[in-house]
Here is the input.
Amino acid sequence: MIQNIADLLNISPMLAENLLYTAAALLVSFLLKELTCRIVNRNVEDDKRRYHARKTITYIYVGILIVAIGGIWFQGMHSLGTFLGLASAGLAVALHDTIANMAGFFFIEARKPFRVGDRVEINGVQGDVIDIRLFQFSIVEVGNWVDADQSTGRIIHIPNSLTLKMPLSNSHIGFEYIWNEIPVLVTFESDWKKAKQLLAGIGKENAEHLSSRMQDQIRRAARKYLIVAGKLTPTVYTTVKDSGVMLTIRYLVDPRQRRGTEQKMWEDILEAFATEPNIDLAYNTTRFYSLGEQQKSSEKENHE
Here is the structure.
C-alpha cells in the first residue's frame, strides 16, 4: 500500500509512509476529540464549564497530535533539534505576527488579564469576551454607535499580540463596578437645594444597596492591588453652567446594567420634578435685545 502511494505521488516510500501515518494521526485525533466533546456536551449542563472543558480537551489533543507528528517525521531528538535550529531564524522573521500572537495567548493564559465573560476595552474597542484562541480572542462589541455600553451585535476578532502592546482595561477583575454620572441641569430660578435633596434620595434608592457588596470586593482586591476606596455611596455634586445649575448624581453600577439603572433614575427624576413647581429643567437659551429700542425707551422715560 505504501509502495502504491509512493508510485502514485512519485515520492519515496519513506515519505509516503510518513504521509500515511500523519493522515492517520490527524484522523484518529479528530475523531477522539469529537467523541470526547460530545460526551462533555451530554454530561455538563453549565454553559461556562462546558466551554472551558471543550477548550481544554482541544488543547490536550492538539498537544498529543504535535508530539505524534513530531515522532513520525523526526527520528530522535538530535534531528529534531537540528531542524528547529535551522528553521527558527527564518520563522522568527517570516512569522513575526504569528509568534507574537502565540506569545500573547500564553500571556493571557498565564497572567489572566481577562477571562471569557469579562467586559474589556483594548485599542479603542470595547466588548464582552466570548472566546480565546491561540492567535486571537473574540468579543461581542458594545458601545460604538449604541448608547450606554449596550451590544451592537457585531463579533470582533482581536489579535492576541495586542495584549502585550496596548493598554487593556477590564471591568470585572479586581473591582466589578464602574462609576456612572447623570448630569441634571436646572434653571437659576429653581430651588436647586430642594432639587439636590431629591436627587440624593433617588440615587440612594437605586444604588445604595450595592455599597456593602462593593466594600467586600474592595477588601478582596486590596490583597492584590493597591486600591484606596473613597466614598462608595451615591452622591450629588453641584456646579454652575451657562444655562443653569448643574447637579450631577455619581453612583456605582454594574457595567452591564448602566443603561437600565440610568433609565430608572431619570424616570424617578422626571416624576419628582413634576410635583415641584419651583424646580424646572434648564436648556440652552439665547436672549436678544435691540439697542435702538432701548435708547428710545430711555429717552421717553427722561422726557416724562
In short: DSSP finds ten helices and eight strands in the chain. The longest strand covers residues 244-253. The CA atoms of residues 25 and 66 lie 10 Å apart.
